[in-house]
Structure formats: structure tokens, C-alpha cells
Amino acid sequence: MTFFKAITSRKRNLLAILRLIQIHSNVIISFQSHGMVFTVEDAKYCQAIANFEKAQFLSYEFKEEYKFLLELNKLIELVSLFEGNRYGSYVLELAMEEKGGPFLLKLDVVEKDISTTCSLGVYPAQETVGFNMTCEKENSYIVFPAKCLRRVLQDIEETADYLEMTLYPNSAPNPQLKIAVKKMGEYLVYNLPQKSESVRSYNCSEKSIVSHQYSIKYIRKVLLHCVPISDDVEIVINSEGQMLLRFMLHENENIAEQSVDFYCLPKVEDIVMGTASPPLVLDKSIIY
After folding, report:
1. Integer angstrom CA distances of residue 257 from 19, 158, 249
2. What's the pLDDT at 240?
3. Are residues 195 and 223 in the same domain?
4. 129 lies in a domain?
5. What pairing do the DSSP bridges indicate for beta strands 281-285 and 186-193?
6. Whole-angstrom distance, CA of residue 94 vs CA of residue 91
7. CA distances, 264 to each of 42, 77, 217 (Å)
8. Domain boundary residue among 92, 124, 156?
């Protein structure tokens, strides 16, 4: 028996997911009972995780759970072979003959009688940051339509200093999410009250506000990629300031109904907004 072998006709789905999590040049792939897990981490600060579930494969078999590292850019390049409808139907086979690689990709284009096999060298998987975000009852979170973040995207530029997430406790007069972007000496503040019809779910059981700053470099790229193709977004922040951005993706011809998770650590010099008076605060609503 081959160590790992899986066949799928949803190459576009896999390709779309890989492009979404492309925040670094390497990816850790894990064979698990429920499917393949792709983890990308940048500078031990931002981590992206996507699952390609067993149900999306025509066949899926493996001997044991195993994870390894390979170059994400090369994987995307190979998966994107024969991209486009003009080639007709196809099946993509992913395989590993024995533990330790290499990782094999075989693409068969049925109508054209084309078959291409490529291999990628694999490396030992590196340790990744363990994010403790499993118990939502102990975390602060909000769920709302991803389209609400489009206005925030308009002001998140590469020159912006940072982005700050603030959740007000349930006991506050007006519980809400505030997103602040420091840009050109100004704070641009976006508000989404709990009472808004756009808010699907909200919880902040802390006694005081939960507020942390995050690097704009990673957040901007994640939002640019995920907001346009997502239905809802869930923001979860734990007591240590670790943040989860979970995007529930549109189901279409390229993407199955699923979510992609992005985890971020707060800035080391995390300062709660309000300890120093900013030159100017511009309030904006992100309610649609």
C-alpha cells in the first residue's frame, strides 16, 4: 500500500485555498483522518490554516498521520497546471509512495488524453505556534457579514502603522466592535454595535474592554484575499490577545463550503488605544 494517495476532481478548489493562505513561501501539510491540513506561518506571528476535507476527494487513503514541509510557491505552480476550462475535465492525484517523500502530483486531463506527473522534495515539518482558541465561551468574539469590512479595506494601506481591535464587554452600555487604523497621524475608527442587525453573534464576558494592536502587514493581505469571497467572518480574541479571523467562504465552482482560519499574535509593544491622545479620531460606521 502506498503511504498516502488521494484523488480529487476539485483542483480549482484546492488551488483557491492554497492561494488564500499564501502568506509565506513554505507550507506544512498534514495527512489526517478527516483530510489534508495546510498550515502556513510567517515569522511566528501570523498563521493560516485550511482544511481540504476527505469528502472533497474521490478516494483518500493513508497509513498514518504525518506532516512535512514543502515550498508553497512550487506546489501552487504545479497544481495550477492546465488551469482553465478549455482543457476539459481532469482528476488530480496526490501521493507519497513512502514516508518522507517525495510528494507526487499527477494530473490527468481526460478529454485531451494528457497526463503529467511532478514531484516535490519534502522537508521535516517545523514547530508552529500553538494558538489556544478552542473554547469560545472563555474568549471574546463577534460574527458578522464579511462585506462590513470592505470600508475598512479602503483605509488599510501598506503605509498604515497598525490595526487595533476592541471589543466592549456585554455589561457596557453599548457593547460593540471597534476597529481602529492608525494612518498618517490619524486614528480612523470603525464601529459595529452588538445591537446592529448585521451582527450574527457577540460575546465579551470580560469586566473591561478587550483591546489589542496587530501588524497591518499581515491583516491587510488576509482581508484583501478573503473579504471578497466570504459570506461571514468571525473574530475571536482570547485573554492573551491572540486573534482568530475565520472566514466562511462563498460556495461556488471554485470553492466548497468551508472556512479558512488566520491566527495573529498582538504586537509586542501592545498599547490600548486611549492611553495616549491621538491627534485626530475619525469615527466611521461599518454597518450595511
Report:
1. 16, 31, 6
2. 87
3. yes
4. no
5. parallel
6. 10
7. 10, 27, 11
8. 124
Give residue 139's pLDDT: 86
In the chain, DSSP assigns E strands to 4-8, 26-32, 35-42, 46-53, 59-62, 66-71, 90-96, 103-109, 114-120, 123-124, 140-145, 162-167, 176-183, 186-193, 201-203, 210-215, 230-237, 243-249, 259-264, 281-285
Distance, in Å, from the CA atom of 263 to the CA atom of 244, rounded to the nearest integer, reads: 5
Domain around 261: 136-285
Q: Residue 276 is part of a domain; what is its CATH number?
A: 3.70.10.10
Residue that is written with C-alpha cell 492561494 in the block: 19
Neighbouring residues of 84: CB distance < 8 A, sequence distance ≥ 6 = none
Residue range 140-156, pLDDT digits in tens: 999 999 999 987 887 77
Residue range 207-229, pLDDT digits in tens: 899 999 998 877 888 888 888 88
DSSP 185: T
Outline where 135-278 has alpha helix (H).
150-155, 216-226
CA dist., res. 92 & res. 280, Å (int): 54
Q: Look up residue 174 and give its DSSP letter.
A: S
Distance between CA atoms of 27 and 189, rounded to whole angstroms? 35
Find out whether 180 and 273 touch, Cβ atoms under 8 Å. yes
| 142 and 275 housed in the same domain | yes
